[in-house]
Amino acid sequence: MTLYGVTGAGKTAVTNYVCSQLEDKGKQLNRSVQTVIVNCRQIDTQYRVLSHIGNSLLEDHEIDEIPFTGWPTDRVFSELVKRMDSRQGVFIIVLDEIDHLVRKVGDDLLYNLTNLNSSLKKARSCVIGISNDLKFTDFLDPRVRSRLGQLDVIFNPYDAQQLQDILRERVKIALHDGVIGDGVIEMCAALAAQEHGDARCALDLLRVSTEKAELSGSEKVEQNHVKIAQHQIEADQMTPVIAKLPNQQKIVLGAILINEKNGLKNIQTGEVYSIYSQACRHLGTNALTQRRVSGLISSLDMLGLITARTISKGRYGRSKEINSCIPQNINPVTIMSEAEPELENIFNGTYKYQTRL
């Protein structure tokens, strides 16, 4: 079974709930049902996944752990089969963020896990994959895709009304009556729904809004606290991304910002490259080729720092229309200059701008 959906759509929460229900039902029927959840972003090799599952089956008094490294993979797999058969029952293996694992190490692990029942004699297993990417199965061998995708479940993003319901339930548990002002829940839900329909985003926004109200000494959480919280969350998310950009990406982003400061919108790749090359001279740094810079622009687009829309220029080929999308309450120039003080030179330099026809 594979569960698909955007971040914060409830895939992991629903899986945990259903697995808990199955374990309870197993106890009622005197049958062993055990769930093993693997975060494939953290545990991201075949060896580590198999050893993690195997070690999760140990009782508290057992000390025969599969070592972190050192065994052949087929020995780890055989040990896993042995432990599952010795405990019997049903084992539910949940691979959270399975797409990350497949992209990194391929589908050998999935082939082994989906074929696990053919090796088991006294136990049965079930594999559940959780993914944010609907297309990750394109990377799989057809046999693996067939076994893993016998049932696909799509989790659609929450709409504003559903997010309001989630927030109201959390408010009942976490806050006193009358603490939330008029329109606060609706505002948090609407802002989260506009982005990705992400329940985590809505809950974070409400949590930070409550903290802001408490810090200001207010007896109620009001809509102005939500606005302050939104700016704070944006800054907390984006500031480290900008600060940790590699040096060349910082220079490219700086070139985009310098063009915008000069009044340009829908900046073209050539205009970015012109300022980028001059900035590299200011720094005494070798400039990359325009093709490499175009790739860095695409990376900045993926990070959400800019938008880069590819357009056709007829017989002149294709180009990108580039605009920054960094919120106004965040100062990327200061962030980059504090991270790498020498970059301040490029923002204080003099530039020759391309003339648009």
Describe what you observe in this structure.
With 357 residues, the chain is an alpha/beta fold. The protein folds into 3 domains: 2-155, P-loop containing nucleotide triphosphate hydrolases (Rossmann fold); 160-237, Helicase, Ruva Protein, domain 3 (Orthogonal Bundle); 244-347, Arc Repressor Mutant, subunit A. The chain contains 15 helices and 8 strands. The protein has helices spanning 11-28, 46-56, 73-87, 98-105, 108-114, 142-148, 160-174, 184-195, 199-215, 223-243, 247-261, 269-283, 290-302, 332-339, 344-347; strands at residues 2-5, 33-39, 89-96, 123-131, 152-155, 267-268, 306-312, 318-324. It has a 5-stranded parallel β-sheet, with helices on both faces. It has a 3-stranded antiparallel β-sheet with strand order 6-8-7. A hairpin with a 5-residue loop joins strand 7 and strand 8 (318-324). Helix 9 crosses helix 10 and helix 11 (247-261) crosses helix 12. The protein is globular. The N and C termini lie far apart (56 Å). The model has no long low-confidence stretch (mean pLDDT 89).
Keywords:
alpha/beta; 357 residues; Rossmann fold; Arc Repressor Mutant, subunit A
Helical segment tally? 15
Name the helicity range: 40-55%
Q: What strand order characterises the main sheet? A: 2-3-4-1-5
The SSE order reads EHEHHEHHEHEHHHHHEHHEEHH
CATH architecture of the largest domain: 3-Layer(aba) Sandwich
CATH fold group of the largest domain: Rossmann fold
CATH class of the largest domain: Alpha Beta
CATH superfamily of the largest domain: P-loop containing nucleotide triphosphate hydrolases
Q: Measured on Cα atoms, how large is the radius of gyration?
A: 26 Å
Q: Report the uncertain regions.
A: none
